[in-house]
Amino acid sequence: MKKLKVGLISFAHGHANSYFASLAGMPEVEIVGIADESQSRVASIVERSGVPYYADYRELLASDADAVVICSENVHHAKQAVAAAEAKKHVLCEKPLGISVGEMERMIAAARENGVQLMTAFPCRYLPAVTGAKAAIERGEIGDIVAVKGTNHGTNPGGWFTDKSLSGGGALLDHTVHVMDLLNWMVGSEAKEVYGYAASRFGETKIDDAGLVHVKFAGGAFAVIDTSWSRPRSFPTWGDVTMEIVGTKGIISVDGFAQKNEVYSDLAGKGSWSYWGDDMDRLMIESFVRSLLEGRPVPITGEDGLRSAAVALAAYESAKLGQPVAL
User: Fold this and answer.
1) Hey, where are the domains in the chain?
2) How many other β-carbons are positioned within 10 Å of the β-carbon of residue 186?
3) Alpha-carbon Rg for the chain in angstroms
4) Residue 322 φ/ψ, nearest 5 degrees
5) Each residue's pLDDT tens digit in the chain (327 positions)?
6) 87 and 62 in contact (C-beta within 8 Å)?
7) What is each CA distance from 323 to 81, 213, 317, in whole angstroms?
């Protein structure tokens, strides 16, 4: 069996742990290294797995890896993805793809010029409710999409996410991109105008933890997304991904994490929701790996990442100006 040799760059983003577990469970994958400037952050996983550790991601890029998964702080995505592409490695990069349109364009260009693929990590495309809605839309069950109301609520993740010098932005950037990618995928029309609101409403951090994004599409549809870190620590789960999709013939309601059990634990001291549905991270990782092994285009491209992040960045500009911004 041909194996894909994969390395991981940084475990700064918590999704890296899930991605690692998914890769480790695939017989067609060989994990050839973990690079992280913070050895303590990956010490336990390196010790358990026996995977080689690199303090400098450039040492990993000098290895025989075929591809890398980047889960570093947002400000590092571009330089690491460009370096990986120049080392002829395929890239799966955590969202948001970048923190400026220019650097995302450089990432896409570097992959193209070096003959490798760049995929953006948008696992929400693999949620059962989302794939079901996409199929129903393609069958024409609700006609043409007219409007969408979406949410991506979450708990403030803290740490580097609230440090703009590392994150590039708060909740508006962090949470707009997931739902915006689903809208781009389903509406089938480019976003042309954005009106945004961003503020700090739910905590003591100065970075934005509340956001609303209004989007007009070239085809006439419009959408509004609540992208706030508004979930208190006491809430049963970290957040949600929902959409109310209004068409000319009907409406589809999507609750991405509705496949859950309610768990009441004295140990935890509160009720919680335990998700039992399909593992979206695993499905995304499998699609990345198999696309590369089979020589097919990756399903979620760098251009997809650019289109969604560009809306979030435009929303910040709109919030600053107090008026809509054209894309």
Assistant:
1) 4-121, 124-279+310-326
2) 22
3) 20
4) 75, 30
5) 789 999 999 999 999 999 999 999 999 999 999 999 999 999 999 999 999 999 999 999 999 999 999 999 999 999 999 999 999 999 999 999 999 999 999 999 999 999 999 999 999 999 999 999 999 999 999 999 999 999 999 999 999 999 999 999 999 999 999 999 999 999 999 999 999 999 999 987 889 999 999 999 999 999 999 999 999 888 888 889 999 999 999 999 999 999 989 998 888 888 898 888 889 999 999 999 999 999 999 999 999 999 999 999 999 999 999 999 999
6) yes
7) 34, 12, 9
- For 122, the 3-state DSSP assignment is coil
Which CATH number is associated with domain 4-121? 3.40.50.720
CA distances (Å), origin 269, targets 76, 154, 156, 233? 38, 20, 20, 12
Q: HSE-up of 23 (CA within 13 Å, CB side)?
A: 26
For residue 27, say if its preceding peptide bond is cis, omega within 30 degrees of 0. no
Is residue 69 helix, strand or coil?
Answer: strand
- What residue has token string 């889960």? 71
Strands 4-9 vs 270-275: parallel, antiparallel or unpaired: unpaired
The arrangement of secondary structure in 124-279+310-326, i.e. its CATH architecture, is 2-Layer Sandwich (3.30)
Would you say the pTM of this structure is higher than 0.85? yes
Beta strands in 42-190 (DSSP E): 53-54, 67-70, 90-94, 118-121, 145-151
Among candidate residues 258, 248, 109, 133, the one with its CA nearest the CA of residue 185: 133
Token digits of residue 203: 């905590």
Looking at residue 178, its amino acid is: H
| Tokens coding 302 | 């760098």
Torsion angle of the four alpha carbons 125, 131, 134, 138, in this order, in degrees rounded to the nearest 10 = 130
What is the C-alpha separation between 81 and 98, in angstroms, rounded?
10
Cα distance between residue 223 and residue 145, in whole Å: 10
